[in-house]
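User: Hi! I have a protein structure encoded as tokens and I'd like to know what sequence might fold into it. I'm fairly new to this, so please keep things simple.
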């Protein structure tokens, strides 16, 4: 006998009681989240640990002059990599959005990013080589060394593009094992090669740069092999997809071009106004930023695909929550860097023991940039790319940095550190403005291709 037969209305189910199906579904989702986080921290921890050991091995093993040479090549490669990419590879995940199961659509966007990125490389490579040689010539390094360094830089720049656009399908499907295993093995091989070359007495700036270039090249080919399982490669490419990618990234292009030089501007300025020892010191301090790479990688690997799929209703608390968690994590690290810089100095080695006064400011600037980078990742995941944001970022940075150069200068390592610290506030202000504007206005409408909606 049921409740209706007793003359009692059944009514809606109690809100406290959840169906077994709902509980099982939530348990499954929670388990999947835990698995993804476990694989991320395991993979990123292993890869980052080996890369950090390799980087610090070079800091402690190479002479000050040799590390200045390698540091300039590495910083130049990072800056030119951003300039050549122009954000093309970062468009894949936001534009695919929830349609990752459409292998043809994924293939079109990856093909478009590859086409645009490779074309930009071949256009800018001669200018990049000339610029690097001009900077290196000022320090009277031998022509053979300069040529070997620039060849390593160019190979790294080309191969890093392959890594970027072929890693996007792996991240969309959270295939973290396929993403981290090749990089970890390649990084371990590079570290062993550094040790062997050091023991043999042949480790120098260009050998270190060449081994890094080969490492990135190997990763690119391995990523391409793995990514082919999740996309269907278009033959030929789709010009309409190229136009869509360009329309999407165009408002952010001025800021991306400007930021390409900003990422290593203190190193470039000190290479112009300072000496070889200053270049080595600034490059070595920049290596401390690798301690925060795990957080930035977390933003790209975990946060961006997640935020790109979020509903509008859930976005604000999660957006603010990610910022709060990042800030809380950074506070004790900054306090430690100011109060006890010794562990950081030990990491850098005896050649840089005099930099204790700069450690706290370097770590504080890195934390501020980390928060700004998180906001940028979440903004682009929601397609919040606006002309006003690019203009504001450029104007703020130009104003602050021009004033700093005029009234203080960038002739010493300490000045270069404070220059970076002052610049970091511009990024937080800009991306904070874009976030607020995005919540109020919503994403720009971009004409979609294939099955994607407008």
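Assistant: Happy to help. Inverse folding works backwards from shape to sequence: for each of the 454 positions I chose a residue that suits the local structure. Here it is:
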């Amino acid at each position: 006998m049921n409740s209706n037969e007793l003359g009692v209305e059944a009514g809606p189910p109690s809100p406290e009681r959840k169906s077994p199906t709902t509980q099982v579904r939530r348990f499954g989702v929670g388990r999947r989240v835990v698995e993804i986080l476990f694989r991320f921290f395991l993979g990123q921890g292993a890869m980052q640990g080996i890369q950090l050991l390799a980087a610090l091995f070079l800091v402690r093993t190479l002479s000050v002059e040799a590390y200045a040479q390698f540091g300039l090549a590495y910083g130049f490669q990072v800056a030119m990599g951003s300039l050549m990419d122009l954000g093309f590879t970062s468009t894949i995940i936001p534009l695919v959005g929830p349609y990752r199961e459409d292998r043809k659509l994924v293939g079109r966007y990856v093909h478009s990013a590859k086409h645009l990125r490779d074309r930009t490389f071949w256009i800018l490579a001669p200018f990049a080589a000339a610029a690097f040689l001009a900077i290196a010539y000022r320090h009277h390094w031998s022509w053979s060394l300069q040529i070997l360094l620039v060849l390593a830089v160019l190979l790294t720049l080309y191969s890093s593009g392959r890594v970027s656009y072929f890693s996007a399908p792996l991240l969309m499907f959270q295939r973290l094992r396929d993403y981290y295993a090749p990089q970890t093995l390649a990084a371990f091989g590079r570290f062993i090669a550094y040790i062997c070359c050091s023991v043999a007495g042949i480790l120098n700036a260009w050998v270190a740069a060449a081994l890094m270039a080969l490492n990135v090249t190997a990763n690119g080919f391995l990523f391409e092999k793995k990514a082919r399982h999740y996309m269907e490669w278009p033959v030929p490419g789709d010009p309409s997809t190229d136009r869509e990618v360009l329309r999407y990234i165009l408002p952010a292009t001025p800021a991306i071009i400007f930021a390409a030089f900003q990422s290593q501007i203190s190193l470039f300025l000190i290479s112009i106004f300072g000496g070889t020892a200053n270049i080595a010191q600034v490059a070595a301090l920049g290596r401390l930023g690798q301690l925060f790479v795990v957080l930035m990688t977390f933003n790209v690997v975990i946060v961006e695909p997640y935020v790109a799929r979020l509903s509008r209703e859930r976005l604000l608390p999660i957006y603010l929550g990610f910022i709060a968690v990042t800030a809380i994590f950074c506070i004790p690290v900054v306090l430690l860097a100011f109060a006890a810089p010794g562990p950081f100095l030990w990491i850098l080695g005896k050649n840089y023991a005099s930099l204790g006064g700069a450690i706290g400011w370097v770590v504080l600037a890195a934390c501020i940039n980390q928060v700004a980078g998180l906001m940028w990742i979440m903004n682009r995941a929601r397609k919040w790319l606006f002309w006003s944001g690019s203009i504001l970022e450029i104007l703020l940075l130009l104003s602050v940095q021009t004033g700093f150069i005029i009234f203080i200068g960038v002739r010493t390592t300490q000045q270069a550190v404070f220059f970076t610290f002052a610049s970091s506030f511009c990024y937080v202000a800009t991306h904070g403005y874009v976030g607020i504007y995005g919540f109020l206005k919503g994403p720009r409408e971009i004409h979609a291709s294939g099955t994607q909606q407008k």
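A useful reference point when you look it over: The CA atoms of residues 261 and 284 lie 18 Å apart. Feel free to ask if any position seems puzzling.
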